[in-house]
Amino acid sequence: MKEKSKVSHLAIELAVLLAALVMLLYLSEGGLYRRYVTDTLRYVRAVVLEVESETLSDSELKTGQKLGE
Questions:
Q1: Would you state the pLDDT for residue 41?
Q2: Separation in Å, CA 39 to CA 21, 35, 55, 69
């Protein structure tokens, strides 16, 4: 009986370790999120006074964001 108990405890410990490893690998890859290279992107603080024209389209990521000029 003790032999079965040891085996089941070992199986549970291995399952927990495997799950933790999978989560760590998933998080290190960034999950489904893909970061774009933004090293050359700079932002300037400003206040928009008027929008003369705009061209918008739905984002390919299907997140509800709009892309455009």
A1: 77
A2: 31, 11, 25, 21
Contact 57, 65 (CB under 8 A): no
- If one counts the domains in the chain, the total is 1
> What's the pLDDT tens digit per position in 18-59?
999 988 877 766 555 566 667 777 888 999 999 999 998 988
Q: How buried is 55 (Cβ within 10 angstroms: 0-12 exposed, 13-18 middle, 19+ buried)?
A: exposed
Please report, for residues 3, 12, 23, 47, the alpha-carbon distance to residue 19 in angstroms, rounded to integers and kept in the order given. Answer: 24, 10, 6, 48
Residue-wise burial string across 20-48, b where 16 or more C-beta atoms lie within 10 A, e elsewhere: eeeeeeeeeeeeeeeeeeeeeeeeeeeee
